[in-house]
Specification:
Blueprint (H helix, E strand, L loop, with lengths): L10 H10 L4 E7 L5 H13 L4 E5 L10 H12 L4 H10 L7 E4 L2 H7 L1 H11 L3 E3 L9 H9 L3 E3 L1 E2 L5 H10 L4 E4 L14 H11 L5 E4 L5 H8 L4 E4 L1 H5 L7 H21 L6
Parallel strand pairs: 1-2, 1-9, 2-3, 3-4, 4-5, 6-7, 7-8, 8-9
Helix pairs in contact: 2-4, 2-12, 4-6, 6-7, 8-9, 10-12
C-alpha cells in the first residue's frame, strides 16, 4: 500500500529545473524560531524574494557540534525563547505558497526524541521536501530511510574531504535529492576562501555515483558562490545570512540587509559558467 503524503517540491526536481537553465542553485539556511518563529518566516520569505532557490531550515538543538559561533548564537536565542521541533512544521506550512523546496537540517537526536515515523509524517504533511542529517551516516539510518521513503521525502547525508571512496559510494547510494558536500573539515562559518578540496570532493562524489552534489560550509561572498556554482549543483549558505540578523538594527533594516546579501550571492551564482557532468 502506498502511503499518502503531501510533501512539497522535491529538491532534486528543482535542481534539475535549474540545470536545464544552465545554472546551479542557491540554497539558504536559517534557524527556525530566530529571532522569533514569525520573524523566521519573514526572513525565509526575504531569502526567496531575493534569489534563493531552495530553503534549508535548521531545528534548534542544544549541542550543535557542527555549527560555528554565528549559528550557535542564533540557535541559543531560539531555544531560550522556547522554540520546539513542532515549530519547524509551522514555519514550513507558512511557506508553502512560495513553491520552493524546504528542507530541514537537524541533528539526529531531536528526530529520535520526536519519533522517527512521526517526524517524517509531520514533515511531509507540512509540505517539507526532506531532511538533512549532519550527524547521521547512512549505515545507521535505516529507520529514517524507511520512514522518509514511505512519506516521499528527500534523504540528504553529508560527505567531507576526509571521506573514503567507499564512504562516498555508500552515501551517494543512500541520498535522495542531493549529496551535501562539506567544503572543509570543521564547523560552519564564513571563511575568506573555500579551498580547492571542495571541487575535488564534488568530482569524487560524482565518480562514486552521486547524481547531484551541493557544497556548503564557509561560503560568504558572491565570488565564492560563483566559483562553487561553476562545478557544483548547488551553493549552500548559512552564516552569511544569519549574521545580518544578529545586529542591533531595527528588524526592517535587518531584513533589508538579509535581502541584499541574498541578492549579491544569487548574482554570483547566476554569473558562473556552470558545467554539468
Amino acid at each position: 500500500m502506498t502511503t499518502q503524503h503531501s510533501a512539497g517540491v522535491r529538491s532534486g526536481i528543482r535542481l534539475a529545473q535549474l540545470e536545464e537553465q544552465g545554472r546551479a542553485a542557491l540554497i539558504g539556511y536559517l534557524p527556525v524560531g530566530f529571532p522569533t518563529v514569525d520573524q523566521s518566516i519573514e526572513a525565509a520569505r526575504t531569502l526567496v524574494a531575493n534569489g534563493v532557490d531552495i530553503l534549508e531550515l535548521g531545528v534548534p538543538y542544544s549541542d550543535p557540534v557542527m555549527d560555528g559561533e554565528t549559528i550557535q548564537h542564533a540557535v541559543d536565542q531560539a531555544l531560550e525563547a522556547g522554540v520546539r521541533v513542532a515549530d519547524t512544521f509551522k514555519v514550513i506550512q507558512a511557506l508553502q505558497d512560495l513553491d520552493v523546496p524546504v528542507l530541514v537540517m537537524s541533528y539526529w537526536n531531536p528526530v529520535l526524541q520526536y519519533g522517527v515515523e512521526q517526524f517524517a509524517a509531520d514533515l511531509s504533511a507540512a509540505g517539507g521536501a526532506g531532511l538533512i542529517t549532519p550527524d547521521l551516516i547512512p549505515d545507521e539510518a535505516g529507520a529514517w530511510i524507511d520512514a522518509a521513503t514511505a512519506h516521499g521525502l528527500d534523504q540528504v547525508f553529508l560527505v567531507a574531504p576526509s571521506s573514503t571512496d567507499k564512504r562516498l559510494e555508500l552515501t551517494a547510494q543512500a541520498c535522495h535529492g542531493f549529496v551535501y558536500a562539506a567544503s572543509t573539515m570543521g564547523v560552519t562559518g564564513e571563511r575568506t576562501t573555500v579551498g580547492a578540496a571542495a571541487q575535488s570532493l564534488v568530482a569524487r562524489t560524482r565518480e562514486a555515483g552521486a547524481e547531484r552534489v551541493c557544497v556548503g560550509l564557509g561560503v560568504s561572498t558572491a565570488q565564492q558562490a560563483a566559483d562553487i556554482a561553476g562545478y557544483a549543483d548547488g551553493v549552500i549558505v548559512g552564516s552569511a545570512f544569519v549574521r545580518t540578523m544578529l545586529s542591533d538594527e531595527p528588524w526592517s533594516k535587518q531584513l533589508e540587509a538579509l535581502g541584499a546579501v541574498a541578492a549579491d550571492l544569487a548574482a554570483g551564482v547566476g554569473s558562473a559558467q556552470h558545467t554539468t557532468p
